[in-house]
Amino acid sequence: MFPVENELAQPAVDIAVHTTAAAIDDDLSKPGSCRSCENYIDGDESYCVHCGFPLKGSEEEQTQFMHNKTYMEMDLQTMYRKIKSAATTLYVLAVLSAIAGAVLYGTQSEEDNPAAILVVYIILSAIYAALAVWTKQQPLTAIISGLVLFVIVQLLSMVEEPGSIVKGIIFKIIIVGYLVKGIRSATEANRIKKQWSLQ
Amino acid sequence: MEPSIAKESTAIVPCNNCRKYVVAGSKFCRHCGTIQEKIIDHEVHKPVIAALVIFYSLELLLCLLVHFNDNISGWKALMIVDGIMAFSAIFFFAFIWHDVKHLLRWKSFSVKKSLLYASAAIAASFIVHWLITKLNLTLFESDNYYYYTYLSSPSPALFMVLMTAISPALFEELAYRGFVMGGLLKIMDSRAAIFISAFVFALIHLSLLSFFWLFPFALALGYLRVKENTIWYGVLVHFCFNGLVCLLEFKEMGIFNWMHI
């Protein structure tokens, strides 16, 4: 009898692995392609040169490989979410910089040169926005650059007006937190993608 | 089949684990399944990452002091700050000496190439100088002259060339294209290293208005460093770029008797 109860008790990840394993078995009809990555293989190699799948390994080894790969794919999704949060943070900084520039332009006296202030804030906003967009291609580089820019802008504000460091301190900590998490996730995602040949 | 393709397809290299031969460019070994690409272990490179952070924090601190402390505005104070920065550049370069010492060689030296790069730097400097003058006059209704900083020095023109053209060309290249890029290349690919080193280099000047030219300039210097595998072309380009600014200032201020300095 088919063990329905046991199957239902399995966590989602195992169901995914079983599904993938079943798909692999069906895929035997495709000669010359790796069961895991579907890239072309000669047929005489022990491991796939594209993804490291144990082509001549036992059923257990092959299932374990697919199991680990599925876990990594799930980890990767979590990391992508954190990278996306970091990108959103950069978009928020871009919008806030633009708003701050517009407000200062409208409120500063002529002696403070509001036009120059507006130009500086527009440049700042454009850099944040460009980095946010770029997180899709180069997340690690873009988020590191965004964090460095944010820290330097905060230091400059602090030197000009020492009291500014405590203004919105919780908001600033949250921003740094999101960016740091983004950097860690991007670093880890790069490693996993390389090691498991994932996209 | 073209000969180059045939050569590429038969190239084999030993696996980095089992040492059996695999086709060059394979991601994994066909015999043992070990990944052939270099996987960066950030734990191993923690000292380099820490050194990068310490170096940049120190640079930032010094630049903030110069920009916001009125006591550090004279040429003597600037010389002291530049001296500390030069020492810092040498110290941190030496910290990763094993990875960057090859950059001090100039194996690819060619007069033709040097002239080409120098001409490009002079042309770019001329355009940037013109744009900055326009921008300053439009936004601030005045222009900024470095020469005034060195007026009280024994020889203003000489000191200006030393502090504006020679010192930055040598020590900023040693620091940013040498140490910073050298450190970054240990933990990321060359494109990312060029971008981040250029970005932090542009930001350290603490002027967002100057970012539009400092960033592409630093990108070009980073690219040169990777392409030529030496910092000396970068030093030459940086010197020509900054040197022309000095000459244009001398010309605009009517100081061209600098043969008597």
The strand order across the widest sheet of chain B is 1-2
Structural class of chain A: mainly alpha
Give the termini separation of chain A. 40 Å
Structural class of chain B: mainly alpha
The H/E string of chain A reads HHHHHH
Strand content of chain B: under 5%
Identify the quaternary structure here.
heterodimer
Number of strands of chain B: 2
Kindly report the average pLDDT value of chain B. Answer: 88
Shape of chain A: elongated
Characterization of the model:
Chain A is 71% helix and 0% strand. Chain A is built from six helices and no strands. Chain A has helices at 4-9, 12-26, 59-107, 114-134, 139-160, 169-196. Residues 1-30 of chain A have low confidence and may be disordered. With 261 residues, chain B is mostly helical. The model of chain B is unreliable at 1-8 (pLDDT under 50). Classes of the chains: A mainly alpha (199), B mainly alpha (261).
Please give the structural blueprint.
The complex is a heterodimer of chains A (199) and B (261).
Chain A lengths: L3 H6 L2 H15 L32 H49 L6 H21 L4 H22 L8 H28 L3
Helix pairs in contact in A: 2-3, 3-4, 3-6, 4-5, 5-6
Chain B lengths: L2 H8 L1 E3 L6 E3 L22 H23 L6 H21 L1 H4 L10 H30 L15 H32 L2 H15 L6 H18 L3 H21 L9
Antiparallel strand pairs in B: 1-2
Which features would summarize this protein structure in a list?
heterodimer; A: elongated; disordered N terminus; B: 261 residues; mainly alpha; two-stranded antiparallel sheet; 9 helices; 2 strands
Give a brief outline of the structure:
The complex is a heterodimer of chains A (199) and B (261). With 199 residues, chain A is mostly helical.
